[in-house]
Amino acid sequence: MALSPRNPPVGHNCPWLPLLILLFTCSGCQPPKAPEGHGLLPESPADQTISAAAAPSRPFDQPLGKGALGRTVFQTPGPSKTEITVSDVIVGPHEEGSLPTATGPVLIDVRSGSGAAAADGKTLDLSSERLVSVSAGAAITLKNSGDAPLVLRLYTVEGK
After folding, report:
1. Is residue 104 a contact partner of residue 75, using CB atoms and an 8 Å limit?
2. Could you give the CA distance from residue 107 to residue 100 in angstroms, rounded to a whole number?
3. pLDDT of 23-53, one tens digit each?
């Protein structure tokens, strides 16, 4: 089919067609905008104040000073009259907490955050992905130096 004045190319009689094609292809180039906020949510009804259907099985229920909480995750008898305890500790940002004196050695596994532990007159660096050991009978003070919570897992082996 040859082009002739009788058979003009598509879009020849419609000068706005290229403009429409450009408009439709560019409209998808910009990310959608978030809706504007409309203020605070309304108060919940008095009978719906609980946020979860059940309490956590192992809550952080052990206060360890002004700015720290702990919980026991696992406890079992070990070999040769020992007891192995695994516990978690959270120290708030720029806060500190004290651990009870353990009768056995304590291995501190830093899960997140940064800070320091003071034990036996020494200051131990607590940074992510680092293990720190503390000898038996030492009083341990934990200090969070960061803006995020310091999360630790403690492994304790105590003699019976």
Report:
1. no
2. 14
3. 666 555 555 555 666 677 778 777 776 666 6
Q: What is the domain partition of the chain in residue ranges?
A: 62-159
Fill in the amino acid letter for 94. Answer: H
3-state helix, strand, coil in the chain (%, to 5): 10, 40, 50
Distance, C-alpha 109 to centroid of its chain:
16
Q: Count Cα neighbours of 106 within 13 Å in the Cβ-side half-sphere.
A: 26
Q: What is the CATH architecture of 62-159? A: Sandwich (2.60)
Query: By three-state DSSP, how is residue 25 classified?
Result: helix
C-beta separation of 132 from 120 below 8 A: no
What is the C-alpha to C-alpha distance for residues 82 and 146, in angstroms, rounded to an integer?
35
Q: How many residues does the chain have?
A: 160
| Cβ atoms within 10 Å of 16's Cβ, excluding its own | 9
Report CA torsion sign: 12, 15, 20, 26. positive
**Residue 53 has which token pair?**
């259907």
